[in-house]
Amino acid sequence: MSPKATIGLFIAGVILLIVSQSLYVVNETERAIKLQFGEVVQSDIQPGVHFKTPFIQNIRRYDARVITLDSNTARFLTSDKRYVMVDFYAQWRILNVRDFYRATAGQPAQAFELISNLLTRSLRDEVASRNLTQVVSGERDELMDSLVIAANEESKSRWGIEVLDLRIKAIDLPEDLSASVYQRMSAERQREAREQRSEGTETAEGTRARADRERVVIEAEAFRDAERLRGEGDALAARIYADAYNKDPEFYAFTRSLRAYVETFKENDMILLKPDSEFFRYLKSATGK
Fold first, then answer.
1. Same domain membership, residue 201 and residue 272
2. Is there a single domain that holds both residue 203 and residue 231?
3. Per-10-residue mean pLDDT for the chain, 289 residues long?
């Protein structure tokens, strides 16, 4: 290869290198800034093909899409002195790439740390102003909205970051406190069970006592009624017998004697009596005389 061809190839290579270092592309999903000797000379570069001074200026690109920050579970103290374990996540994006670069030195990890510390601090203040019931259920939505507003006041002006949303995934009690709460709940339930058993025993004893008293009263009344009915029956039978006897005393005496004969000789076939005994009155004569 001749020297002219070599020089031509060298010049063409240099030109291609300069052109490649002068052109750059910014995608739709990116935010870019132009740096010159470490200083920002242009920010918020629009998507497309652009030029820069080769070897002097360089381009830093950052994701312009929504980014999710998943925090570690942290421990907070409520206004009623109860500890809770809160697990949350946040969504954010770069709003001003110049401020973002200056605050984080272009390091996304630094941005994650800044946002996490800010949200944790804001969340601690919000939880400290509420009691356990309000944190767990009553005012959770209000708490998250307040956190987003408070976080944006600082993140937008200082770091060029906009916090879009914050959601609390879980609110739990610490393990040691959970055990204490469980023991207290168990003791409370056992106390209620003892009270229920005591009230049940008392009610059962009262029911048994009333049943026993009612049984005694019923038996006494039944015995009284039975004796009264038996006396009335005996009186009625005696009156019937008397009326029947008064109508025909001789016939009544005759039937009584016959019944006595039957009952006597039913089990005994021999009896010793005087011949003139009153027992044989109707055997001697049909008239009993």
1. no
2. yes
3. 67 65 78 80 77 77 85 81 83 86 82 88 83 71 81 86 85 67 77 89 89 91 91 87 74 72 69 64 59
What is the domain-level CATH number for residue 75? 3.30.479.30
pTM for the whole structure: 0.52
Cβ contacts of residue 16 below 8 Å, gap of 6+? Answer: none
* Residues 115, 104 contacting (CB under 8 angstroms): no
Residue 188 is part of which domain span?
183-247
Element (H, E) at 146: helix 140-159
Question: Which of 23, 95, 86, 87 has its CA nearest to residue 52?
Answer: 23
pLDDT at residue 87 in the model: 85
C-alpha distances in Å from residue 43, one per residue of 69, 79, 101: 25, 45, 10
Nearest partner of 168 among 289, 76, 276, judged by Cα: 76
**HSE on the CB side for 205, CA within 13 Å?**
5
Q: Is residue 204 part of a domain?
A: yes
With beta carbons less than 8 A apart as the criterion, state whether 35 and 97 touch: no
Residues 6 or more apart in contact with residue 193 via CB below 8 angstroms: none
Give domain status of residue 178, yes or no: no
DSSP string across 97-145: HHHHHHHHTT-HHHHHHHHHHHHHHHHHHHHHTS-HHIIIIITHHHHHH
pLDDT of residue 218: 92
Query: 24 - beta bridge partners?
Result: 50
DSSP 9-37: HHHHHHHHHHHHHHEEEE-TTEEEEEEET
Structural domain count of the chain: 4
Rounded to whole angstroms, how far apart are CA atoms 84 and 77?
Answer: 6
Burial of residue 134, with CB atoms counted within 10 A of its CB: 0-12 exposed, 13-18 middle, 19 or more buried: middle
- Assess whether 199 and 252 both reside in one domain: no
